[in-house]
Specification:
By secondary structure, the chain is an alpha/beta fold. It is built from twelve helices and 21 strands. The chain is about 30% helix and about 25% strand.
Amino acid sequence: MAKKKNIVYMCTECGGESAKWSGQCPFCGEWNTMVEMKAQEIDESDKRRRSAAEPGKRASANRLRQVEADTHQDRLDTGIGELNRVLGGGIVPGSLTLISGEPGIGKSTIIMQAAVNIAKKYGKILYVSGEESEEQLKLRADRICPDLNDDFYTLAETNIENVAAVTEEMEPKFLIIDSIQTMYSQAIDSAPGSVSQVRECGNEFMRIGKVRNIPIFIVAHVTKSGELAGPKTVEHLVDCVLNFVGERNQDLRILRSFKNRFGTTSEIGAFEMGEHGLAEIKDLSKRFLEDMEDGAQGSMVTAVYEGTRPLLLEVQALSAPSGVGFARRTAIGFDNQRLNMILAVLERQAGLSLQEQDVYVNVVGGFRPDGTSTDLAVALAIHSTYRGISCRKDTLALGEIGLTGDLRRIQYAERIIKEAARMGFRRVILPKSQARRLGDLKAAGAISGTESGVSLLGVKNISEAIAAYQK
């Protein structure tokens, strides 16, 4: 289609356009601001555009302060509380979400469960499968979602042009692509899953979602190292990147957000894989501590704050004489370099001789906490197993360890102590400066209820912490 050149007049003050010249702008009323511009008709077949402008019309810039934003735009409720939590309260209309994870981890399962709930509440949804046939999807749906309704549509297709045509015809409330590595555009000769195909398909789904205000979930594969397969461009295009992790021999699944334009990236969602799909885990702290033994050596409880909730974790440590020429240092769920630093501090400040000891540290439950609030619990667990001292089950340890052996403050200590009290803990070992502040709040009545019965043991360094946990 040939492009026709036209003459338009644009106001340099407000950006308004008019087909006729006039000394006064018909939009903002300013005088002598209309200038002649050469404009070209936009080729309607150009699918690379992601502008919300109507096809065939030229895009124009607007002043940001004059843009009317819908701050009360309703999010779509997925019917799954843990998924809503990670997304920031639900699915934003017109958003593009990428969900990744290892094969068999539960990506398609959680999306299908959410799709069934959305279909019941909002209307038509379209599940596009490039890997499974419609019969295979029906078999899975019968197993995990027996109460399907007539608004759940499925399409076994890999051609992006056909998917776009069906989407424009149906106008679904929710679109699912499983997976983007199987999609291809006939405009590109390369095979599905190649860099160019994934980039082109990502752009097309972005255009569909933004122009038609349809939220889209895209399933993506991961590499052997656990990273998202395909070009990084797709991660930059989407509004939200979710990652599903968990051990295949365990039923616990953790959903994390690596990128979220409409919410925080610190929230996590916890699920349990069962025969009939994924079930939410409401009390994750209880799940992590339910098998903990009282009086065990090398076992200590700590806590981290994830998003809007505290999580209590059990840290286990084991030290044993090394039978080879060099000592092993192995950590599961804890940073290995930080473990080496803590071992050096224990040798220097607490008098432990660990040069010929194999040391193993494990965060029970397969969870990998971020931050440094678990440092003190790891150090005390190592000291316990090395000295053969039993740890009390009602004691929780919090704090970051510095190179000098001193303890540093952590965030959200008040909320963590409240969660510890709910779980039945009676003693919390934490940095002295933070314990003093919390003690002042308790005396002033700012901390009340169940958390007021918890004893706060303030310690200044690792030596005082060792003495406190042995009492």
